[in-house]
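Pilot study result, target chain (80 residues):
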Amino acid sequence: MPRPATGTGLKRRLRRFQAWVRLHIPFGLRLALGILLMLLGLVGFLPILGFWMIPLGIAIAALDVRPLCRRWRERRRPRD
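Predicted structure:
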């Protein structure tokens, strides 16, 4: 039976990827990687590169930038 397209699988994969990046990539390199992904996402019309790289770059850069990290956590928190 196919699972419904709710997006929860994508959220779970993003959290797992963030945890992997946090454990395996050094502190300053994470910010550089996030910025690089955002810049490459701007040329999203190319076949391999895509606009999907922009939110991924923001998520990775947010791990090193305290205000972005706080804002990212607030958005993930369920609202009442």
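One observation from the pilot: Residues 8-24 form the longest helix (17 residues). A full batch analysis is planned for the follow-on phase.
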